[in-house]
């Protein structure tokens, strides 16, 4: 796990402050002692009020610490970094306008060269990759939606013909 905002973790410093405030808070009540025998009871109460005795069952303090922890966690923006299967969604655009009928220096039409390049791209698809095939001239049309079926994609490429538009 990682944090997008490490500065948010600075709010964890509020927890010791909360604990310190509860340690400093005295909850002694005034008691009138009519006899010296009862001083022993007063000393026992004083011992019971030692600092760490207060922290034992203080629900309100625990709730405040929980709120600080949750706010700190929210401000720090934790993320779980995982490496899912790397899947690529590829959109392959093929021109089928009239200009693709022209013949290049190598004796092939531009469309044939583009089909060969498209077949090479399809052959190099990884197992989790998907490809969408879109052909366009004066308007675009989807020849094949996202799929990882290489035979179907190559078949759609082979069906591609140049138009007069």
Comma- or semicolon-separated keywords:
about 160 residues, alpha+beta, 3-stranded mixed beta sheet, 5 helices
What's the rounded overall pLDDT mean?
82
> Order of strands side by side in the largest beta sheet?
3-4-5
**Number of H/I helices:** 5
Rg calculated over all Cα atoms: 38 Å
How many DSSP E strands? Answer: 5
- Main sheet record: 3 strands, mixed
> How far apart are the termini?
55 Å
The residue fraction in helices comes out at: 25-40%
pLDDT < 50 runs, ≥5 residues: none
Taken from the alpha-carbon principal axes, the silhouette is rod-shaped
Q: Helix/strand-derived class? A: alpha+beta
- SSE topology string: EHHHEEHEEH
Q: What is the beta-strand fraction?
A: 15-25%
Summarize the structure.
By secondary structure, this protein is α+β, with helices and mostly antiparallel strands.
Commentary on this structure:
There is one protein chain. The chain is of the alpha+beta class and 165 residues long. Helices cover 38% and strands 16% of the residues. The strands form two sheets. It has a three-stranded mixed beta sheet, with helices on one face. A two-stranded antiparallel sheet has the order 1-2. A hairpin with a 3-residue loop joins strand 4 and strand 5 (140-147). Helix 1 runs antiparallel to helix 3 and helix 4 packs antiparallel against helix 5. The two termini are 55 Å apart. The model has no long low-confidence stretch (mean pLDDT 82).
């Amino acid at each position: 796990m990682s944090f997008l905002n490490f500065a948010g973790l600075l709010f964890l410093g509020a927890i010791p402050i909360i604990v310190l405030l509860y340690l400093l808070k005295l909850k002694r009540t005034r008691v009138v002692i009519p006899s010296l025998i009862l001083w022993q009871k007063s000393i026992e109460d004083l011992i019971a009020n030692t600092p760490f005795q207060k922290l034992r069952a203080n629900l309100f303090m625990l709730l405040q610490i929980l709120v600080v922890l949750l706010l700190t966690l929210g401000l720090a923006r934790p993320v779980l970094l995982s490496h899912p299967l790397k899947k690529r969604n590829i959109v392959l655009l093929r021109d089928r306008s009239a200009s693709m009928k022209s013949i290049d220096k190598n004796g092939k039409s531009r469309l044939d060269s583009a089909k060969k390049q498209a077949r090479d791209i399809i052959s190099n698809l990884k197992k989790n990759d998907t490809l969408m095939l879109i052909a366009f001239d004066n308007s675009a049309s989807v020849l094949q939606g996202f799929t990882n079926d290489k035979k179907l994609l190559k078949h759609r490429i082979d069906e591609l013909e140049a138009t007069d538009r």
